[in-house]
Design goal:
By secondary structure, the protein is of the alpha/beta class. Among the domains are: 199 residues, Glycoside hydrolase family 3 C-terminal domain (Rossmann fold), CATH 3.40.50.1700; 114 residues, Immunoglobulins (Immunoglobulin-like, Sandwich). It is built from 23 helices and 26 strands. A 6-stranded mixed sheet has the order 11-16-15-14-12-13, with helices on both faces. It has a 5-stranded parallel sheet with strand order 4-3-2-1-10. Helix 2 packs across helix 15 and helix 19 packs across helix 23. The longest helix has 17 residues. The radius of gyration is 27 Å and the shape is globular. The protein starts with a helix and ends with a strand. The N terminus is likely disordered. The structure holds 1-deoxynojirimycin. The site of 1-deoxynojirimycin has 8 residues, from loops.
Length: 744
């Protein structure tokens, strides 16, 4: 290595960390950052630059075919790797980082990335469950805990949040997102970005976030993962893109391009999506990584004949980094030689990568995240476990509670605990559970036995999750007969949702439903605690089981959180972020649908209906009960004519009419009655969480601006149109009170 390069590289390592975020970099800091980036760039060979655009995986968690590569460590030494994923732990990351910064010519540190989706070691509820809390601060906090643990274990970058809107519960990845609504999804996307990244990326409690999968991935036809999407411009702009835009505006450091074919062009090669919308229209300054092998998958999609063409499509679309595909490594030099791409384009992508390395403080100290003592002290801290417990209990949704079966009396004499989920530690952390381990989980059985004393808990597994075996039924029914109360813990196994886990039949799997119905026939007080990574069809159990609590996949602190709610130490407050269908044939079903020219119900001929089932879902979006009740009164607006000059104020009185304190999520929906394109029957425009003592009344107010009434009109132009609007406020998307106003 020549002397100048060594000196320059050493001085680079001495550059101080740059305390900026992708969005907020103030002018001076931004200028300094750019200078530093350029000071490195100018020293790099073409090969080294392309190396920065290449990401390889370590040995764990491979989520697709591994591209052939000669020797990983040699590739790092040769400067052919800019980032690694799936390298875990302070010690291991230090070892690999050492190779990059001590043995490669440019000594540029690697970025380590990992799927930290709902916790790293302390596992929180799955994102869909967490979203059911509608708790912006809580969700932000969960992301911060995950970031703190991941950073302590050597990670710099999480491939989260997944902000794909999903309206088809057959799709296994609904578990990773925020559900069906763009407004809720956007607020939660921002919260997660803030949680992961904070305001200073060089802080040891923050890591880079990644908004994925850009875009439309959640719309997979037939709910089958990786499948085609065909989305109108209007739906793309109004339903699928808003959470991505919100994440970009919140300063998310990276985006991941999606696997899916979008309107004939796979997202990873979709110039309109990445170059035109993301990087130009939204002026996004962060870095775009492909999904795993999604560049070469464009050959299989049938839009590229070989890696050369696939690389051409992806790079010109604006994908900066190739995840585990080796396409950029081999093809960018040829594409440059043939003038399909330019050096300026390569430099621009490399800049986006180097910026992140500076922001993380890696040029200051490449080992800043590799300290085994700190790692040990940080993982599974009691305060993190408490946060996970709180997040879990806030995520539970009380779906039914006839005759006030819940809360259970803590002095209950005997409880029959039945079901495959009652003591299934691994199933409590579910898919994408980072380095979480079943051994750290407190199951429902364990916690119940601690609270009540083992003698009071009669446990029988009864059935497996999905094995078709009924030999355990008799023992389960016998146990139930002996007890005063039945707690039935059933649902999906932890790995039945997530990537490539689509299901065609989304009932409670296997023979479980049969056993639940048998248990219900005993006529005892019974609660079904449901574990699920997606909405399930619960129509039959809803008709017979008196109480149902949806626990999603609750995480490490499953048992304590569940007992808090079952025994009334915590009054359930979760609200569904996604519709639960009445029947499979209703899918896709979501609350903000269009009206059609013939809205109607089952008994009306020539109306938009089914002969055999109602149109309504079993449980609507926003639904969730409490141990108390809330009444909504006195909805009023400060004006019936709204000119847009000052915000419209909407006020409503919410009263706790029950006997115990409770948390309510007050939801605001709006309908534009006539538009230049048809508008949904309701759209969520705001929500507020409030705690009310028994008997207490609070007046809640929302403000609405013209922006809130805007949409993409007939000419695809964003704006509000004059006319009449209905305002709905209520406890869920169906149960609301309403008022009207006119926009002039
Ligand atoms: C493929 C998944 O689609 C993506 O979400 C994930 O981040 C990568 N694999 C890396 O594991």
């Amino acid at each position: 290595m020549n002397k100048i390069i060594i000196l320059a590289a050493l001085s680079i390592l001495g550059i101080t960390a740059c305390k900026t975020t992708v969005r907020q970099a103030p002018d001076n800091a931004e200028k300094n950052l750019n200078k530093r980036v350029d000071s490195v760039l100018v020293l790099m060979t073409l090969e080294e630059k392309i190396g920065q655009l290449n990401q390889f995986s370590g040995d764990g968690e491979l989520t697709g075919p591994v591209a052939l590569r000669p020797d990983l460590l040699k590739s790092i030494r040769d400067g052919k790797v800019g980032s690694m994923l799936n390298i875990n732990g302070a010690e291991y990351t230090r070892k690999i980082q050492k190779i990059a910064v001590e043995q490669s010519r440019m000594k540029i540190p690697l970025i380590f990335g990992y799927d930290v989706i709902h916790g790293y070691k302390t596992i929180f509820p799955i994102p869909l469950g967490e979203s059911a809390s509608w708790d912006i601060e809580g969700v932000e906090k969960a992301a911060r805990v995950a970031a703190t643990e991941a950073a302590a274990a050597g990670q710099h970058w999480t491939f989260a949040p997944m902000v794909d809107i999903a309206r088809d519960p057959r799709w296994g990845r609904v578990m990773e997102g925020s559900g069906e609504d763009p407004y809720l999804g956007s607020r939660l996307a921002e919260a997660r970005v803030r949680g992961f990244q904070g305001t200073d990326l060089s802080d040891k409690t923050t890591i880079l976030a990644c908004a994925k999968h850009y875009a439309g991935y959640g719309n997979a036809q037939a709910g089958r993962d990786y499948y085609t999407t065909d989305i109108s411009e209007n739906s793309l702009r109004e339903i699928y893109l808003p959470p991505f835009k919100a994440a970009a505006e919140a300063g998310v450091a990276t985006f991941m391009s999606a696997f899916n074919d979008l309107n004939g062009i796979p997202a990873t090669g979709n110039k309109y999506l990445i170059h035109d919308i993301l990087k130009t229209e939204w002026a996004y300054k962060g870095m775009v990584v492909s999904d795993w092998g999604s560049i070469s998958e464009m050959i299989i999609h049938g839009i590229a004949g070989n890696n050369y063409e696939a690389g051409d499509l992806a790079f010109n679309a604006g994908v900066d980094m190739d995840m585990e595909g080796s396409v950029y490594l081999t093809e960018l030099p040829n594409l440059l030689k043939n003038s399909k791409i330019t050096t300026a384009q390569i430099d621009e992508s490399v800049r986006r990568v180097l910026r992140l390395k500076f922001m993380l403080g890696l040029f200051d100290d490449p080992y800043r995240y590799c300290n085994t003592d700190y790692e040990k002290k940080t993982l599974l801290k009691p305060e993190f476990l408490n946060a996970a417990r709180d997040a879990a209990r806030k995520s539970f949704v009380l779906l039914k509670n006839d005759k006030q079966v819940l809360p259970l009396n803590p002095a209950v004499k005997s409880v029959a605990l039945i079901g495959p989920a009652a003591d299934a530690a691994n199933d409590m952390i579910g898919n994408w559970s980072g380095r979480g381990e079943g051994k750290d989980v407190i199951t429902l059985k364990k916690e119940l036995e601690t609270r009540l004393g083992a003698g009071k808990v009669i446990y029988a597994r009864g059935a497996g999750f999905n094995d078709g075996e009924k030999s355990g039924f008799a023992a389960a029914l016998a146990a139930a007969r002996r007890a005063d109360v039945i707690i039935a813990a059933f649902g999906e196994a932890g790995m039945m949702s997530g990537e490539s886990m689509s299901r065609a039949d989304i009932g409670i799997p296997g023979v479980q439903e049969e056993l639940i119905l048998e248990l219900a026939k005993l006529g005892k007080p019974m609660v079904l605690v449901l574990f699920n990574g997606r909405p399930l069809i619960l129509t039959k159990v809803n008709a017979t089981v008196p109480a149902i609590l949806d626990a999603w996949i609750p995480g490490t602190m499953a048992g304590p959180a569940l007992c808090d709610v079952l025994f009334g130490d915590y009054n359930p407050s979760g609200k569904l972020p996604i519709t639960f269908p009445y029947a499979l044939g209703q899918i896709p079903i979501f609350y903000d649908h269009k009206n059609s020219g013939r809205p109607g119900s089952q008994d009306q001929k020539y109306k938009s209906r089914y002969l055999d089932i109602p149109n309504d879902p079993l449980y609507p979006f926003g639904y969730g009960l409490s141990y108390t009740q809330f009444a909504y009164n006195n909805l009023n607006l400060n004006a019936s004519i709204f000119t847009g000059d000052k915000p419209l104020e909407i006020r409503v009185d919410v009263k706790n009419t029950g006997l115990v304190a409770g948390t309510e999520t007050v939801q605001l929906y709006i309908r534009d009655l006539v538009g230049s394109v048809t508008r949904p029957v309701k759209e969520l425009k705001g929500f507020k969480k409030l705690i009310l003592k028994a008997g207490e009344v609070q007046t809640i107010s929302f403000t609405v601006t013209k922006e809130d009434l805007s949409f993409y009109n007939r000419n695809n132009i964003w704006g509000a149109e004059p006319g009449k609007f209905t305002v709905f406020v209520g406890t869920n998307s169906q149960n609301t009170i309403e008022a009207g106003f006119e926009l002039k």
